[in-house]
Amino acid sequence: MKQKRFILQETELPTAWYNIQADMPNKPMPPLHPGTKQPLGVDDLAHIFPRECCVQELDTEHDFVPIPEEVMDKYKAYRSTPLVRAYALEEALQTPAHIYFKNESVNPLGSHKVNSALPQCYYAKQEGMTNVTTETGAGQWGAALAYAASVFGLESAVYQVKISMQQKPYRSSIMRTFGAAVTGSPSMSTRAGKDIITRDPHHPGSLGTAISEAVELATTTPNCKYTLGSVLNHVALHQTIIGLEAEKQMAMAGEYPDVVIACFGGGSNFGGIAFPFMRHNLKDGKKTEFIAAEPESCPKLTRGEFRYDFGDEAGYTPLLPMFTLGHSFKPANIHAGGLRYHGAGMIISQLIKDGLMHGVDIPQLESFEAGMLFARTEGIIPAPESSHAIAATIREAEKCKRTGEARVILFNLSGHGLIDMSAYDQYLNGDLMNHRVSDEDIRQTLKSVPE
Amino acid sequence: MKQKRFILQETELPTAWYNIQADMPNKPMPPLHPGTKQPLGVDDLAHIFPRECCVQELDTEHDFVPIPEEVMDKYKAYRSTPLVRAYALEEALQTPAHIYFKNESVNPLGSHKVNSALPQCYYAKQEGMTNVTTETGAGQWGAALAYAASVFGLESAVYQVKISMQQKPYRSSIMRTFGAAVTGSPSMSTRAGKDIITRDPHHPGSLGTAISEAVELATTTPNCKYTLGSVLNHVALHQTIIGLEAEKQMAMAGEYPDVVIACFGGGSNFGGIAFPFMRHNLKDGKKTEFIAAEPESCPKLTRGEFRYDFGDEAGYTPLLPMFTLGHSFKPANIHAGGLRYHGAGMIISQLIKDGLMHGVDIPQLESFEAGMLFARTEGIIPAPESSHAIAATIREAEKCKRTGEARVILFNLSGHGLIDMSAYDQYLNGDLMNHRVSDEDIRQTLKSVPE
To answer: Which is nearest to A71 in space by CA: A151, A166, A170?
Structure first.
């Protein structure tokens, strides 16, 4: 019988993260101070983030960064995650492609996010912090952070995008179960939140608004650092544990991916699975194709511009070099809350500029159709975010059907959808629609990008 | 660093289930026809259940039953499940005990139930059925059955206990995502349901009412078989994959359990983890202690009587020899919906009678307190059912703390609680209470047991 799942034993787990910055032909451009427009150093960033994360953020030298033993110890509670050959999906599609997925949904928190929450909390604790704050969209990152904070004995405060909080009430319950204080954003508890609500009393919230509030709380609370679940370089660094494991597991399966696919919000799960394989494109002449699947309603990779822009709605963050729709962009209320973000991470943005990867945009209904097919074949209900990766995978598998090529496709199943069942209900009831953004809307919000 | 998780590779998976009936000193008493009081044979049962399941039900000869290759193939999508050493829980309890848990929550459906749903649907398909029906409480079994039916190309209809359906709306969405038709029980769609509603218009439903309806639908629909998620011998047989894996994994850890604990509704997850170890008590002189953790609000093991009783509320099933509270017993609306059942399986009932295992009853608040501690230490939010096993484990671990004994405790984490977050919300808000049953109530409902 053909082997379906590939698992690493604890002794085989990778013990260092992969830092693609060391191998990039063009390094990411630096983050800038919004006032002086000068490049920011570790000291500038370290009043917001744990210092070690800032060092990692700007490290363009070391290709591997050792994982602290305390973090390894926590990783072992759920890693390795399985690499799975999706035989049933292949059969349903009648494709000659070999489809593999890395199943990051089988950890206790239900998504890949915990891979970075653990080191961020560990580093915060190490430098004597007592509190951490963060933002969360659908709640995957917030749940992971709340858990990681409790593991390392920190208090956590989470600003959750208001619309996601309403759509997925269970996620805030999960955060509260792990001891987090959870607030819907925009809220009246911060200056940034008050300003946003004053301008637009019915603002549904976005990752941009929630980041503004969490950063404000962190910078006005003693012994408190802000943590971020995506976008930044150090977050993608931590997530490379996914791809490093997958590399070993693909070898167990006797294959190497021709295509690597992940959904795309800020870039953390994409970078996590893609960068370790991209290394071999950069260094060993491999020709793997890398596809980031973004929602049609938030198309920064395919229709945004490469500009210096703020990471948040209120303009509290440094200026970041990114493919962006403008930090004032308000994404439609799609269920893939984790993909509702206006900009792409700095590394990803540079890689796209250099033609080393590309994006595709997926309409909401296509993503749910893909998610349903995956559930009924592989038995796993995917997170709406992950369904974008599945949809992109199905497109590639159907190309293979037309050409007869048996390409090896690897995608990252970043999380399960068990907390998103209201979204599936709406889909089953025919209540969902697509949300294509007009060119004019993008032109308008790009005006919010500082010159 | 100490190893935390123990995983089997696909080639190491057990390929046969363990049938404890072959090794029991006293075989379970036979199911009886309610009219004639004569023992029932395979032919009598096979108009309700898939025939192969009926053969397994009454098999007291073969100690191992080969797992069909098609079922093994589906098991490989999620098995083996990890055996985990709960270091963080041990530390929080400051106990010298070694606590291990078998993590059945990490399959796509979130609980152990799929282990039996797959073979039941496979056998139904094999004998030419097109439809299956079942009942479900919290929805763990219904979700598993809906998935297994879709995997083997069968239509499924699920009667879900009405109160559980209201408490956990996501579970019916999951079933619908897998294509099942879901109806709240008691309903007006069956004679049994109509009768129950006529007697008690506000009946919250119970596993007993839902079984009556599903059996009625199966016996009045062509090419349709009824499937059951617990109680019966063949269900426990299928679940022994849990304990057989755990046995190999405990050996990897270099230990053998002094105590094996599982929560108890009808006995499927308990039998699944316990029977393979009990085999060594029966045959090899091992002295492992077996503890079934039932809710204080439904205490058939600790306060019920060993009697022939119906398996369902309406009296449609054969008479089964069981520890029972009476088939008219209406359990309180606790959140551990899967444990709200009036009787224990036939094998378990005989084993209790013979002193080979025992039950403990756990108050609801103690179960949630245990679940919260487990979540905050091990990072997994347990199903309210599984929290009963955790509570019983904590009691044992605390005994060890008092005596200084380093006993090896193994419990089954039968499922996660991500779909049960409303229950955690209510607990966190202080809205839950205990529901101890009075002796008088039990005396009354025992009157419903036929003489």
So the answer is: A151
pLDDT at residue A109, rounded to an integer:
86
Could you tell me the strand order of the sheet in which B5-6 lies? B5-6, B83-85, B98-103, B408-413, B259-263, B289-295, B358-362
Q: What residues contact A22, with CB distance under 8 A and at least 6 apart?
A: A59, A60, A61, A62, A63
Q: What 8-state DSSP symbol labels residue A22? A: G
CA angle B356, B385, B277 (to 5 degrees): 30
> What percent of chain A is predicted at pLDDT more than 90?
86
Of B251 and A230, the structure prediction assigns the larger pLDDT to B251
Q: Which of A173, A178, A421 is facing B173, going by the closest CB pair?
A: A421
What whole-number distance in Å separates Cα of residue B99 and Cα of residue B395? 12
Candidates B7, B10, B78; nearest CB to A3: B10
What's residue B218's pLDDT? Answer: 95
**What is the architecture of the domain spanning B69-110+234-446?**
3-Layer(aba) Sandwich (3.40)
Which position has the higher pLDDT, A172 or B291?
A: B291
B380 touches A at CB < 8 Å = yes
CB contact under 8 A, A379 and B7: no
Q: Is B3 on the interface with A (CB under 8 A)?
A: yes
- Identify the band that residue B70 occupies on the pLDDT scale cut at 50, 70 and 90: very high
Sign of the torsion angle spanned by Cα atoms A67, A69, A71, A72: positive
Indicate if the pLDDT at residue A1 is higher than 60.
Answer: no
Tell me which residue of B319, B271, B317 sits closest to B292, measured CA to CA: B271
- Contact indicator for B261, B269 with CB cutoff of 8 Å: no
Q: Which residue of A has its CA nearest to B252?
A: A9
Total-model pTM: 0.93
**Residue whose token pair is 């805030």:** A172
CA–centroid distance for A5 within its chain: 24
Residue A416, chain B, CB below 8 Å: the answer is: yes
Q: Tens digits of per-residue pLDDT, B113-168?
A: 999 999 999 999 999 999 999 999 878 899 999 999 999 999 999 999 998 888 77
- Between these two residues, A313 and A98, which has the higher pLDDT value? A98
Whether B1 shows a pLDDT value over 60: the answer reads no
Using an 8 Å CB-CB cutoff, list chain B residues near A178. 375-376
Give tens-digit pLDDT for A424-441.
Answer: 999 999 999 999 999 999
Alpha-helical (H) ranges within B220-317 are 233-252, 268-284, 300-303
Residue of chain B nearest A417, judged by CA positions = B174
Query: What is the C-alpha end-to-end distance of chain A, expressed in Å?
Result: 60
Q: How near does any CA of chain B get to the CA of A449, in Å?
A: 40
Residue of B84, B177, B416 lying closest to A372 (CB–CB): B177
Q: How far is A72 from chain B (nearest CA, A)?
A: 9
In this complex, the residue of B7, B10, B177 whose CB is nearest that of residue A381 is: B177
Q: How far is A243 from chain B (nearest CA, A)?
A: 20
Q: How many angstroms separate the CA of residue B171 from the nearest CA in chain A?
A: 8
pLDDT of residue A162: 92
| 3-class SS shares of chain A: helix, strand, coil, % to 5 | 45, 20, 35
| Partner-chain residue, chosen from B1, B372, B425, that has the shortest CB–CB distance to A73 | B1
Token digits of residue A447: 């005006």
A73/B contact by beta carbon, under 8 A: yes
Rounded mean pLDDT of B207-222?
92
Q: How far is CA B154 from the centre of its chain?
A: 23
Q: For chain B, which residues make up each domain, given as ranges? A: 69-110+234-446
| pLDDT tier at B225, thresholds 50, 70, 90 | very high
How close B6 comes to chain A (CA, Å)? 8
Query: Mean of the per-residue pLDDT values for chain A?
Result: 95
Average pLDDT over residues A32-47: 94
